[in-house]
Design brief:
The protein is mainly α. 76% of the residues lie in helices and 0% in strands. The protein contains 19 helices and no strands.
Length: 368
């Protein structure tokens, strides 16, 4: 049915590019996507669509700001398509989920943002082509090709440098959607695409990504590049979760996307200083913020399945991230922006209420 509703949504959104009509159409699109996932028995995944709903409100400025709702909705529909059983819909869904947020990179049409836009679309095109080739093939080769495409989009080792490069060139308001929704879409792909990759192949990439991300973020002084390398670190955690227990990967990126989008919104239009600290602590995984719960689940499952040494490696790298996230929070400005404040409050509220709303996701997070 989505193949008929998607053109109707685009036409309705085109009829009203801004204002109340645009918000109403976007809200209806998100509601339908969540309902469809819940009806298909993926109720926990429907909860993880929340960043797609709040992301447009976190874009503080830019000529393309009015199109942020459209980009977020198309990305959410991409996730919905990836959840379908047909392989051609899965391939189309991946392309939509990761490409639509990238269009907002040029929210401010400066030279650096335009360069970053083209660089990202080159990466996204290659990643999508690998996924299409992998889904079209079969066996180990098909899984390897599709996994390579998803890993490229996530920005994991060894194909990670495009992330700080694109982030370092773009205006921060153009990075709100890509830092959260594009990465979350790729994490959804780890779970929803038929990727049969052994742990001995994915775990070294995950461990290297975690290390490289922390090293790069520690050495970076530009907050955009710092968050770019931090994104590599978080992508490594998601890939680690993929090797340990697939459904945990999108949950990890769900929590990290709220913090990343809020931090870029703060850099573009600063809010209270304490909101930057809350968002940074969310990325570290400090309780009771939202970022704490998936990292705790990852540590527990890693200790159970891979042993204490692997869990200690993860814990040491999470502790390492404290230094550069606190440095980032202390170096950002303070202002009256409401958007970073809203993101920090959302992280705190969702984290504090996790014992209630997380019950719906328990079947997703516990091994069968």
């Amino acid at each position: 049915m989505i193949q008929w509703l998607l053109p109707l949504y685009v036409a309705a959104r085109r009829a009203g590019e801004r204002g109340v009509w645009a918000y109403a159409v976007d809200a209806a699109a998100f509601a339908y996507a969540a309902y469809s996932l819940a009806s298909a028995g993926e109720g926990a995944l429907a909860l993880l669509l929340l960043p797609y709903l709040v992301a447009p409100a976190l874009v503080p400025r830019g000529r393309l700001r009015d199109y942020s709702g459209l980009a977020a909705a198309l990305s959410a529909y991409g996730v919905l398509l990836m959840a379908s059983p047909e392989l051609h819909y899965k391939a189309l869904g991946f392309a939509m989920a990761v490409a639509a947020p990238g269009a907002l990179i040029a929210a401010s049409p400066d030279l650096g943002s335009v360069e970053a836009l083209f660089r990202y679309f080159v990466v996204s095109t290659v990643a999508g082509s690998l996924v299409v080739a992998g889904l079209s093939a079969s066996g180990e080769l098909g899984s390897a090709l599709a996994f390579s495409g998803v890993a490229l989009e996530l920005g994991v080792f060894p194909a990670f440098y495009w992330v700080p490069d694109v982030f370092g060139r773009s205006a921060p308001e153009g990075l709100v959607l890509i830092s959260g929704l594009a990465k979350l879409g790729a994490a959804f792909a780890l779970m929803l695409l038929p990727l049969d990759v052994p742990a001995y192949a994915s775990l070294p990439l995950a461990a290297a990504s975690i290390l490289v991300g922390n090293l790069g973020a520690t050495a970076s002084r530009d907050p955009r590049r710092l968050l770019g390398f931090a994104s590599v670190f978080h992508a490594g955690l998601a890939l680690f979760a993929f090797a340990v227990y697939k459904p945990l990967a999108p949950f990890l990126m769900f929590a990290d996307s709220i913090g990343a989008m809020g931090l870029f919104s703060h850099i573009s239009s600063p809010g209270p200083r304490w909101s930057a600290y809350v968002l940074s602590l969310n990325q570290i995984g400090v309780p009771p913020l939202l970022g704490f719960w998936p990292k705790l689940a990852l540590l527990i499952l890693t200790a159970q399945r891979l042993g204490p040494a692997a869990a200690a490696y993860l814990l040491a790298n999470v502790a390492w991230s404290v230094a550069y996230y606190i440095r980032l929070a202390s170096s950002t400005g303070a202002g009256t922006g409401r958007r970073p404040l809203a993101a920090s409050l959302a992280s705190a509220a969702l984290g504090a209420a996790a014992p209630l709303w997380l019950l719906a996701a328990v079947p997703l997070l516990l091994p069968h």
